[in-house]
Automatic annotation (TrEMBL), chains A, B:
Keywords for the protein's UniProt record, in alphabetical order: FAD, Flavoprotein, Oxidoreductase
Superkingdom of the organism of origin: Bacteria
Name of protein: FAD-binding protein
Organism: Pseudonocardia xishanensis
Cofactor(s) needed: FAD
Length: 486, 486
C-alpha cells in the first residue's frame, strides 16, 4: 500500500515505524523553522523534513522583510503605530473574506513577535529608510512596504511604515534570515533531515493524523508523530495542473517564486480532510518602481485608460495590470522622470514622441484615447489632485516635459514574479480546519500552504507572507507540541 | 456512525441496506432527469432522490434554452453552423482553462443531442426570433443567446444563433422543459423519491462509491447502488460559507438562482476524493438589455470609463461590471434610445442633463471624465466604428440627442442574479475525477455540481448550463449504468 499527497495512508497499512517523534514539521522555510523552534522550546521532540538540499524555501528568496506594527523601531523613527491601525490595515489586506480573528491576534501580538525575532538573533539596526523601495540595499531596517499611504488604505487605517527588514547590505536578506533561524533550529536539537520529501500523511481510525511517510534516499521512511504534523510546504506556484485548475491567470506569468512550491502540502491537507480556500488568489509583481521617479508616471491599459493609483504598493499595481484586457500595459513618463527601469531588458520602451499624440499614434491607439487620458491627468495634477484615481499629491507630476515615452510591461515577456495565496484554512492556533469546520486532529499548518493574513494580490504588502510564516508558524508549532501524546 | 456530505460513511458502518438499486441519481433538475432517463434506457434500475418537493431545481427557473449547433432549425433559419465554429466558440467559453475534450465531444454530438431532446417530446417550433433578447416571450425557438456576433468571439468563431428554446409562450420555459423530462423519467420506471435529501455517500474498502444515505421522513435510508451514484445537485449559490471561502465577490449580489443549490453535491464529491476546480467562478446578470435600444447606450464605471463592448452577451457585460472599482456602473443613453428598463425599480435614473457635462456634474464626476468618454465614443460612432471597445456597427449610435440620462446599475441594489460555475472535475463520460486525476469508482456528476463547458461568467452564454446538464447528464447516466454490477 502506497500513499500519495492526496491519499493518506491508513495506520493499519503501516507495518513498522522507522522513526518516532512528537512533532514532524514539513518544510524548512520560515514557517517550518519557526514551528520547529517553538515546538522544541515547548519541550517536544521535533523532526523537520525538507525536500530540498538545504533550508530556505521561498522565504530565502525574499527580502527578509516582516510586516509588523507597534514596535520601538517605528517609534524611534517618529511613527506612532497602533494595534487598531494595524488591525484595520490587515482587514483590508484580507480582501473580500478577511480572517478577522487572525487580523486581531496578529495586531495584538505583533510587538511581542518582534521581540521574539530579535531574541532569535535576527538583527535590526532600527533605522528608517524613507522613500518607495522594493527592499533596502542599505542595512536600514524599516521601510514603507505596502499601500499604507495610498488611497483607499490611508483613509481606513492611520499609515505607518511596517516593513521590518533584517539588517543586511544588499538585496536578498531572506537568506540571511533563514540562516539565523536555521542555526536556532539546530541549536534547539531539532532532528533536521534534508533531501527528505514528504510523501503522504498517515491517519488512524479516528481520522487523526498520527504520522507521515517521508522519502529519504529513495526509500519510504514511516514517521510516527505522537503529537502532530505541521505542514509548512509553501504554495503551488510550481504545480502547473493546480495552477490551471485553480488560478489559471498565473499561467501567463513568467516567474513563479519558490522552487519547491509544488502544492504537496495543500494536497496532503486536503487528503486528510482539510479545506482549501481562495485557491484562485495570487501575488504578483513586476519591479517597475525602480528608479522611483517612475512612480510619477501613469499606467494605461490597451484602451489608453488609467486603472489604479500608481503610488500604491507595486504588487497591488501589478495585480491590477493583470485585470486589464489584453496582454500588456504601458507606463507613461516624460523626460523629467524617465529612467531606465531596473529590468530594462524586459520592460521595453514601446514608443517615444515629442507629443502625447505622437506616442498614442506610435502605439497604434486611436486619437483621443491615451493622449486625452494624459491631458486630463495633467490638468488635475497641475492642481495637485487626482480626482479619478486618487494618487497622492506627493507623487503627482504634470507630464509635460517632452520627449515622452511609453514603457511596456508585458504579462508574458516582462518579469512578473508570482506566488499563490490560496491554501488550507487554519484557525489562529494553526490547526488545519476540516471541510466541516472542525480542526483535523493532529494536523497543523502555516505560511503559504495556508490562506492566511494576505488573501489577495490586490491587497498584498511586502512582509505579509513572512509575517504569516513566522507568527503563525510559531503558533502552529506551539499548538502541535501542546496536545497529549498519542 | 453518521456521515455528512463532506464525510462519507464507510460500508462497514452500514448495518443494513434499506433499498438496493443499480443507479442512484441525486437531484431532479435537468442533469438528474437526463441521467436517470439514460440510465433507465440502458436497462439499469434507477432511483432518483430530490431534496425538494418536486422536480425542477435551477433548471426550472431558467428559460428552457439549450445551446446547440448544427441543427436543421439553424439551417431553416438560414444559418450554416459548423462543428468547428461551435467548438471554437466553446473553447472561448472555457476561459483560461477550457476542457478541450468536452468542447470537442459536445460540438460533434450536438445535432444528435437535439434529436434526442425532440424524441423526449421537447417541442421546438423551429422558428427564429431575431434581435437581442433574454428569452423569447413568443413561441419561437431559436435566438441569439450569447456573444457570437460580438468582439472578440465573432473573430474566432463563425457566428450563428445557438439558443434553442422550448416552444413556449411567455418567460420561464424551463419549467415546461422539466415537466416533459419528468414525465419521461416517470414513464421509464425510475423510482422517484421527493423530499429526499442526500446525506452522505457510502464508500467501500477500495474507496469505491457503493451507496448513498438519503434522509426521508426524517429517517436515514441506506441505499445500496450496484453500479453508481450520479450527483446532479447544482452549485453552491445558497451556501454562504462556501461562497465566502471560494467566490466572495458574489456576496455583494442580491439574487442567487437555485433554491436548493447548497453545495452538498460538491461536498459529497470532494468527500469521496473528487477534485473541485475553478471554485471562484460564477455567472451573473442584470436584465439591462430590455428594452433592446438600451444596448446602443454605453457603460461607464465610477471613473467615467468604458470597459466592455456593450453588444456582447448581457451576462458577459454584467460580469465585467463587477470587475470595475466601486459599487456601481452607469448606462449612458440619449433621448432617442431611452426606455424604462425592465427592472426600473432597481435600475434607477441617477442623473439627467441637457448636456453630457451636466450628467457628469450631477453624478459628482470631475470634468473631462464621463463627458470626454462620450465625446470620444460619439466621434468614432459617427464613423461607424468603435476602435477602443469594438462594439459592432449595428449597435453604434451617436449619443447626441438630448436630454441625456445615466441609469445606475448598483451591485447590491439592482437585481444581479447569479449562480456558481466551479465544481467537481469530470471527464467526458461524466465520471468524477479524483484529485490524483483518476476517476472515483462508482461516482458520476453533471450540471452545475461540476465545472463543465461554461467555466467563467466572463464568457458565459444563455443555454450553456442546460447544455451541460442535459448532454453530460445523459453521459453520466449512461456511464453509471454501463459498469458491471457490484
Amino acid at each position: 500500500m502506497r500513499g500519495t499527497p492526496y491519499r493518506p495512508l491508513h495506520a493499519t497499512d503501516v507495518t513498522s515505524w522507522d522513526l518516532t517523534t512528537d512533532v514532524a514539521v514539513v518544510g524548512f522555510g520560515a514557517a517550518g523553522a519557526c514551528a520547529a523552534l517553538e515546538a522544541a522550546h515547548a519541550g517536544a521532540e521535533v523532526a523537520l523534513f525538507e525536500s530540498g538540499a538545504g533550508s530556505g524555501g521561498a522565504s530565502a528568496l525574499s527580502g527578509g522583510e516582516i510586516y509588523l506594527g507597534g514596535t520601538e523601531v517605528q517609534r524611534n523613527a517618529g511613527f506612532e503605530d497602533t494595534t487598531e491601525a494595524l488591525r484595520s490595515y490587515l482587514t483590508m489586506v484580507g480582501g473580500d473574506d478577511p480572517d478577522l480573528e487572525k487580523c486581531e491576534v496578529y495586531a495584538n501580538e505583533s510587538p511581542d513577535h518582534f521581540t521574539w525575532l530579535k531574541e532569535q538573533g535576527v538583527p535590526y539596526k532600527g533605522t528608517f529608510l524613507p522613500g518607495k523601495i522594493i527592499e533596502p540595499e542599505t542595512d536600514d531596517t524599516l521601510i514603507w512596504s505596502g499601500s499604507e499611504q495610498a488611497w483607499p488604505f490611508a483613509e481606513a487605517a492611520t499609515p505607518a511604515p511596517r516593513g521590518h527588514t533584517i539588517q543586511y547590505v544588499g538585496v536578498g536578506g531572506g537568506r540571511a534570515l533563514m540562516d539565523i533561524l536555521e542555526a536556532r533550529v539546530r541549536e534547539a536539537g531539532v532532528d533536521v533531515r534534508l533531501n527528505a520529501r514528504a510523501q503522504c500523511l498517515v491517519l488512524d481510525d479516528d481520522e487523526r493524523v498520527i504520522g507521515i511517510v517521508v522519502r529519504i534516499d529513495n526509500r519510504p521512511v514511516h514517521v510516527r508523530t505522537r503529537r502532530g504534523v505541521v505542514l509548512a510546504t509553501g504554495g503551488f506556484g510550481m504545480n502547473r495542473d493546480m495552477l490551471a485548475q485553480h488560478a489559471p491567470k498565473t499561467l501567463r506569468l513568467s516567474t513563479p517564486i519558490g522552487e519547491n512550491d509544488n502544492g504537496s502540502g495543500i494536497q496532503m491537507g486536503v487528503g486528510a480532510g482539510g479545506n482549501a480556500v481562495h485557491m484562485d488568489e495570487f501575488f504578483t509583481t513586476c519591479p517597475w518602481i525602480v528608479p522611483p521617479d517612475l512612480v510619477k508616471g501613469i499606467f494605461v491599459n490597451e484602451a489608453g485608460q488609467r486603472f489604479v493609483n500608481e503610488d500604491c504598493y507595486h504588487g497591488r499595481v501589478s495585480r491590477a495590470m493583470l485585470d486589464q484586457p489584453g496582454s500588456k500595459v504601458w507606463l507613461l513618463v516624460d523626460d523629467a522622470i524617465f529612467g531606465r527601469p531596473l529590468d530594462a531588458a524586459r520592460i521595453s520602451v514601446a514608443a517615444v514622441g515629442e507629443t502625447w499624440e505622437e506616442v498614442e499614434r506610435e502605439l497604434g491607439l486611436p486619437e483621443e484615447s491615451l493622449a486625452r487620458t494624459v491631458h486630463t491627468f495633467n490638468r488635475y495634477a497641475a492642481e495637485g489632485r487626482d480626482p479619478l484615481h486618487h494618487k497622492a499629491p506627493a507623487w503627482l507630476k504634470v507630464l509635460d516635459d517632452g520627449p515622452f515615452a511609453a514603457l511596456e510591461l508585458n504579462f508574458t515577456k516582462s518579469t512578473f514574479t508570482y506566488f499563490t495565496l490560496g491554501g488550507l484554512a487554519t484557525n489562529v492556533s494553526g490547526e488545519v480546519l476540516g471541510r466541516d469546520g472542525a480542526p483535523v486532529p493532529g494536523l497543523f499548518a502555516a505560511g503559504r500552504v495556508t490562506s492566511g493574513l494576505p488573501r489577495t494580490g490586490h491587497t498584498y504588502s511586502s512582509g505579509l507572507s513572512l509575517a504569516d510564516c513566522t507568527f503563525f508558524g510559531r503558533k502552529a508549532g506551539r499548538a502541535a507540541a501542546a496536545g497529549p501524546p498519542r
